Amino acid sequence: MNTELIVTPEVQAVLDAIKNTGKSWHEMMLPDHPMYPQFARKLVVTGFNTPDMEGGEDRIYVNVRQYLIIKDGNIIHKRLKMPDWMIHEGNVEQVMGKDGFLKGIYRTTDDDGKVTEEKEAILKAPSVQYIRFLIKTKATHLVDILQQFMGLYTELFDKQINEI
User: How far is CA 71 from CA 37, 41, 74, 82, in A?
Assistant: First the structure.
């Protein structure tokens, strides 16, 4: 007796896409290095983790590598360990709304309650808590969060990225 699974071409396409999904969580292409133009470069998020929520730390550790890829043949030449990025409880992020950043007004009053100054400000929230909120409320996807943070990562670790 033989049993075989029969699926539609659409279902098979989904199964194939799942099978062909790479191991990385996010990839970001880098410009060519001036001294090594034979390589294409990309930053790859290879993993991330958080300490146990019962502990005192509220952090996210993001593991990053830089891949040097030989342009002729698209072969990975080297995987370089980059600094891990620690997003900790002291980091803050600007809070996004449907139409841009959420804003509030700082109002200063004198002792009589008369308004002396009003200043608009973009609202901020603790990074780790904000990331948790975005994921739990399905306001954004993990890959979108990693994409946003990788832009900041390249600014923060520019020297290490380009010292290859």
Answer: 9, 9, 5, 21
Domain-embedded: residue 137 = yes
Distance CA 66, CA 42 (A): 6
Report pTM.
0.73
The token duo for 137 is 């409320």
- 65-118 residue pLDDT tens: 999 999 988 899 999 999 998 888 888 888 988 888 999 999 999 999 898 999
Quick check: is 1 in a domain? no
153 secondary structure, DSSP code = H
Nearest to 52 by CA among 62, 61, 65, 43: 61
φ, ψ for residue 27, nearest 5 deg: -130, 145
| Residues 125, 55: Cα–Cα separation, whole Å | 21
In a domain, 29, yes or no: yes
pLDDT tens profile 133-155? 988 999 888 888 888 889 889 99
